[in-house]
Design a protein that fits this description.
Two copies of one chain form a homodimer. With about 260 residues, chain A is of the alpha+beta class. In chain A, about 40% of the residues lie in helices and about 20% in strands. Chain A contains eight helices and nine strands. Chain A has helices at about 10-20, 30-35, 40-50, 70-75, 80-100, 140-145, 170-180, 225-245, and strands spanning about 55-60, 65, 100-110, 110-120, 120-125, 130, 185-190, 195-205, 210-220. In chain A, the strands form two sheets. In chain A, strands 3, 4, 5, 6, 7, 8 and 9 form a seven-stranded antiparallel β-sheet that branches. In chain A, strands 1-2 form a two-stranded antiparallel ribbon. In chain A, helix 1 (about 10-20) crosses helix 3 and helix 6 (about 140-145) packs across helix 7 (about 170-180). At the A-B interface, helix 1, helix 3, helix 4 and helix 5 of A face helix 1, helix 3, helix 4 and helix 5 of B. Chain A binds a DNA duplex (30 and 30 nucleotides) through helix 1, helix 2 and helix 3.
Chain lengths: ~260, ~260
DNA sequence: GAAAGAGTTCCATGATATGGGACCTGTGTT
DNA sequence: AACACAGGTCCCATATCATGGAACTCTTTC
């Protein structure tokens, strides 16, 4: 099972590029040589080619970072949608296994933005469904994003929707540290009586939380034992998704 | 001046990739073949290699889009900083030519976030300086982002800081359409008496405005004739920056 | 049902990537 | 100062690997 027939040079260059993109800090020439085991001369030539095409660039110290083409891509308004595309298989799987509604959200400013939803296994349309101004402290997704600092904590008093919504800052802090401890968040009757949700974090290379995935449904189904089952499903699936984003277990970030 | 000595295959693959990343929408196999003039077989092989490495992916219809590695990169919290890195030469040049403070901002949520600043030609530290809760309608940067829909228009009545700040929605609308007409925005004594600024938009591949660059200083220097000079400088420099992001003149987007 | 279109696979050919080693350059060591 | 060493680039003969034409498959169109 050697390299597929076809394009050795391109495969090697791509491997270099992947290494550079997936690590969270610039890579030195030597570390790349060591990791891929290629000849120095070959590595040097390939990197020069990648540099010429703006796929990598060198920082002041000569280490390699993702190049301008990546910035160009990241500046596209649609870049986040493509994250949804990447997550699609995971979301679909969660939807099939749980038979509930699944959401993928990212923080934007002080708000939680939904970028994908699976509802009885159909992925919703193309436009972002911005959270209809729901108080994020009452949602499982919001709690996850708050818990790991992906979203700035709300200032002032908390907006509540039901008697179960977190009442004040002290209660919220308690809830969030519980979320961090367990690794997932839950929201029962907090946004609306009869509505329940469980959510887990998606992490990036450097361990920071960049998104959250939730499963939600009526509390007739989302309750007691069901919650544990859903949480386990979510945690294992989001762990896989995080790995796709280059996250390595055990790098849980500082926050 | 044929292809540099070294790596034909990698250069060609990179050219393909650049084409895919810099275009606004998925590219069909044939359009890529036509544009680069490579043999179908070669193109096919190279694309397969890129696909294998997650640098490109096919959508349902078989067209090519940037692959998961790009999403991985875009999900990094630092992705926007890298935009600043890309813009650095441009900002520095503006700083040297204008001898005033230069800022690069992007919209995030409902706010304007500064991601780079040049002050008497020094680039500021690493942390984002979030706009200290300044009402964006009183700033040149804010006006640019509002004018082309990069930032959702504020709801309710406008916060004012001086007698020159836009007073109401009607005035703001008038100002914004003027901004669109001219291609740049100005703010004089609107945020603080004695403070003046000029700003111009940075556009992405699809023509949408993704960022803004401003020059600001005391109205003793930023005034009358000086403003026109600064605006011309800004417009020509941001046009160059937009081109680096893949924007082509004449695609000014729909908004 | 034929024909055009889109894309992949095959294969002989030689152009092109390869890696060893020379070479350069900057940095710390005696 | 002279020296050693690591990090990196350049050069070049070799043969491996990419190349493009053509054959082939699958799908869409008329």
């Amino acid at each position: 099972m050697p390299t597929q027939v076809g394009s050795q040079a391109v495969d090697r260059a791509s491997a270099l590029l992947a290494l550079i993109v997936e690590s969270d800090r610039p890579r030195s020439f030597t570390s790349l040589v060591d990791e891929l085991g290629l000849a120095k001369s070959t590595t040097s030539r390939l990197l020069q080619a990648l540099e010429r095409s703006r796929l990598v660039q060198r920082d002041q110290s000569g280490s390699f970072r993702p190049g301008a083409l990546f910035s160009i891509y990241a500046a596209r308004p649609s870049a986040l949608h493509d994250l949804a595309e990447l997550a699609r298989p995971t979301l679909t799987r969660i939807g099939e296994l749980s038979e509930e509604t699944v959401n993928l959200s990212v923080p934007r400013g002080n708000e939680v933005v939904q970028i994908a939803q699976i509802d009885s296994r159909y992925l919703l349309g193309s436009t972002d469904w911005v959270g209809v101004d729901v108080p994020a402290t009452c949602t499982a997704l919001g709690k996850v994003l708050y818990a790991w600092g992906a979203l700035p904590l709300p200032r002032g008093s908390l907006e509540r929707r039901t008697a179960h919504s977190p009442a004040d800052r002290a209660e919220l802090d308690r809830v969030l540290s519980e979320v961090r401890r367990r690794g997932w968040a839950v929201s029962l009757d907090e946004l609306e009586v009869g509505l329940g949700a469980v959510a887990a974090p998606v992490r990036s290379v450097d361990g920071s939380v960049v998104a959250a995935v939730s499963v939600s449904g009526p509390t007739t189904r989302v309750n007691g034992h069901g919650i544990t089952r859903l949480a386990e499903l979510l945690v294992s699936e989001t762990r896989g998704l995080s790995a796709q984003l280059g996250h390595h277990q055990g790098r849980e970030g500082v926050a």
